[in-house]
Amino acid sequence: MMAIPKRAILALAALLALADLPAQTAPDAAKQAEATEEKKTSELEIISDSVEMDFENRRGTFVGNVKVSDENMLLLADKMIVHLTEDNELRMIEAIGNVTISEVGTQKKATAGKAVFDAKTDMVVLSDSPALADPVQWTLTRAHLITYDRAKGTFTAERSAEIPIRITFLVPEGKGGQTQGLIPSLGGTKEEKDKQP
Fold first, then answer.
1. What is the mean pLDDT of residues 20-44?
2. What is the DSSP secondary-structure string of the chain?
3. pLDDT, tens digit, for every residue of 131-178?
4. CATH class for domain 6-164?
5. How far is residue 85 from each of residues 36, 93, 116, 133, measured CA to CA in Å?
6. In the prediction, which pLDDT does 64 show?
7. Is the Cβ–Cβ distance between 65 and 50 less than 8 Å?
């Protein structure tokens, strides 16, 4: 049976700063059982209207109301395709249609028409109206592509000719309800500006 590594599903949730989990392979079933007894396990649940496991092509396709959840994240999509290598290692994950990835217990969320995780480059690419939000601090509401580099913990937003990038920062209020500027010369109170060298 083709095992879908937990790391495969959680890779998309890396946009929300989830931890790496090691990939599991089918040939190591006995070792996995022993390791499971020694390690703390967490439950990963995948729900969909249908699933097709293509063993020859090393691909699992989940279709219709796809919901992937564990104690840290929730992924929703119309369709999810998990691609494995010949060695049952994760190669790529595609989440397609109405993709939402949220971190449980926070307001952090990523949305897109499509999200693709490439295991070799360790990057997630969001396309088709992608957006990122940490509503406590900032929201990126418009871009052509958003690429998240898991190794560096950074993201890059790209524009197209028709779609400029839009990011909104939440600026805290200062004393007396006045808005503090992100950069004193661009805003802030007179007192804040006077304190600058």
1. 49
2. -----HHHHHHHGGGGTPPP-----GGGHHHHHHHHHHS-----EEE-SEEEEETTTTEEEEEEEEEEE-SSEEEEEEEEEEEE-TTS-EEEEEEEEEEEEEETTS--EEEEEEEEEETTTTEEEEESS-EEEETTTEEEEE-SEEEEETTTTEEEEE--SS---EEEEPPPB-GGGPBPPSSGGGSS-HHHHHH--
3. 888 888 888 888 889 888 878 878 888 988 888 888 888 877 766 555
4. mainly beta
5. 23, 12, 16, 33
6. 97
7. no
Give residue limits of the domains in the chain. Answer: 6-164, 172-197
**At residue 16, what are phi and psi to the nearest 5 degrees?**
-110, 25
Single-letter amino acid, residue 172: P
Handedness of CA 86, 87, 88, 90 (dihedral sign): negative
State the average pLDDT for the chain.
Answer: 75
- The beta-carbon contacts of 58-66 under 8 Å, at least 24 apart in sequence, are 58/2, 58/83, 58/84, 58/85, 58/86, 58/88, 58/91, 59/83, 59/84, 60/2, 60/4, 60/84, 66/95
Q: What is the pLDDT of residues 57-90, one digit of tens each?
A: 999 999 999 998 888 888 899 999 999 999 888 8
